[in-house]
Design goal:
alpha/beta; TIM Barrel; 2 domains; 8 strands; 9% strand; disordered C terminus
Length: 436
């Protein structure tokens, strides 16, 4: 056997390279932590802030079930969305349970477009009332797992009003006993990095005033203006956001109609699937890749009401599926009758993909050679896909265990190895002959 050659690079060489890359190491550690492994809702429901009650989520679930029953039931909805009989039956059963127990995953009390300008006295009262109502719903166990407000944007005309509503709402929650674990704040109509930096300053001051842990108040940024996709200097401001306020932004939400209108798209053609929408959302994906910031698609304004129910369900279901296929696991819903098509399309997506994903995970974990040899990065994506399906209720943990041979803790470790500090299987597909 040939002798192992003596390395040519010295310890000093390695130390020099470490010094050269120290800034890179800090950047990757701080700005690209990856997803934190927590649950991401599949949708966000928007309602005018003054319409929120403790029973709103349950009321929406009841209205959704009534709408489905009036049009042949949830199984028929599945067939309208192209599901075969067996899939439609299983999906219908799970959607029924979802609408009975957790019809709204994420709720945003809207003080922006859905509320309008009603004067300062009225909005002050509404902000205080919203905080009290949310606190009461959380205490009663009737609030969705994720809940918060969208306040007015930081453009000059509405900045003071938006900040005041944000302050009254957060301060009201603190006074009522504390912040909900699933609190989410939404900053709309962002055009510049400076507006996001101003938001980060505002929430940091609220943390200081109320004695909250630093970083407790994170927020979403709505991407509704072309200026955030392409700035005046030719760069993309949205790509700077994660690095301008590291750890503060929880999500980027695409705003279908404001964005499309800003680009002079006629109302008839404004859509989540217009080419300008796809371009913006692809830039958003690139901007936050690896940062842990999550993405949400927008909404469709075609509501399933009147004589339009079934065609609107088909459109909505197709758009939900399209978003999921493109890596957008969340979207907006604006009407109770959109819930059946949201969950039916989402559940079908995860259930249809489960057998193949689970088989590949089974082979990966068991170091079994199958017809596809997956790399660790692909195994993470497979595990994340399956985990999302479990978290939203599309598939059961027992199904995953039977098909993939892993429990939820191991599945979570595979999906988020850095978070779990759990080593990946020592093999790699490349070492077994697959192409990198």
């Amino acid at each position: 056997m040939a002798a192992t050659p003596t390395p040519s690079l010295t310890a000093a060489d390695t130390a020099h390279i470490d010094a050269q890359l120290a800034a890179t190491d800090r950047l990757l550690d701080r700005n690209y932590p990856g997803d934190d492994g927590s649950r991401q809702p599949v949708h966000t429901v928007y309602v005018p802030a003054d319409r929120f009650t403790a029973s709103l989520a349950a009321d929406w679930g009841s209205q959704a079930l009534t709408a489905a029953a009036a049009h042949g039931g949830l199984e028929r909805l599945g067939s309208l969305l192209g599901q075969d009989a067996q899939l439609a039956e299983v999906v219908a059963s799970r959607v029924q349970a979802k609408l009975e127990t957790e019809p709204v995953e994420d709720l945003r009390l809207d003080f922006e477009d859905g509320y309008g300008d009603r004067g300062d006295d009225a909005e002050d009262a509404a902000a205080v009332g919203a905080a009290a109502a949310v606190a009461a719903a959380v205490a009663a166990g009737s609030a969705p797992p994720f809940i918060g407000i969208r306040f007015k944007c930081f453009e000059a005309a509405t900045r003071a009003r938006g900040l005041r509503t944000l302050d009254l709402f957060v301060s009201g929650l603190v006074s009522a006993g504390g912040l909900p674990a699933g609190l989410i704040l939404t900053l709309p109509k962002v055009t510049t990095v400076a507006q996001v930096q101003a938001m980060a300053y505002a929430v940091s001051r609220l943390e200081e005033v109320h004695g909250l842990p630093a970083g407790r108040l994170r927020f979403e940024v709505q991407v509704e203006t072309p200026q955030l996709i392409l700035g005046p200097d030719g760069t993309s401001p949205v790509a700077h956001l994660p690095h301008a306020v590291p750890g503060r932004i929880s999500g980027l939400h695409y705003g279908t109609y404001d964005y499309s209108a800003s680009l002079q798209i006629s109302a008839e053609y404004q859509s989540m699937e217009h080419p300008v929408a796809d371009f913006a959302k692809e830039v958003m994906q690139l901007a936050v890749a690896g940062t842990g910031i999550r993405l949400s698609d927008g909404s469709t304004n075609i509501m399933p009401v009147g004589g339009n129910v079934e065609s609107a369900w088909q459109l909505h279901g197709r758009l939900v599926r399209r978003s999921l296929e493109r890596g957008y696991c969340q979207g907006w819903d604006l009407h109770p009758a959109q819930l059946p098509s949201r969950f039916a399309a989402t559940y079908a997506f995860y259930r249809q993909g489960l057998p193949a994903a689970a088989a590949r995970l089974h082979n990966y974990v068991g170091r079994t050679e199958g017809d596809v040899m997956d790399e660790p990065a692909t195994a993470r994506a497979l595990a994340a896909f399956v985990l999302r399906g479990v978290q939203c209720g599309a598939v059961g943990a027992e199904e995953v265990a039977a098909l993939a041979g892993v429990g939820i803790p191991q599945l979570t470790g595979l999906a988020h190895p850095r978070l779990a500090r759990s080593p990946e299987p020592s093999h790699s597909a490349t070492a077994q002959g697959a192409q990198p």
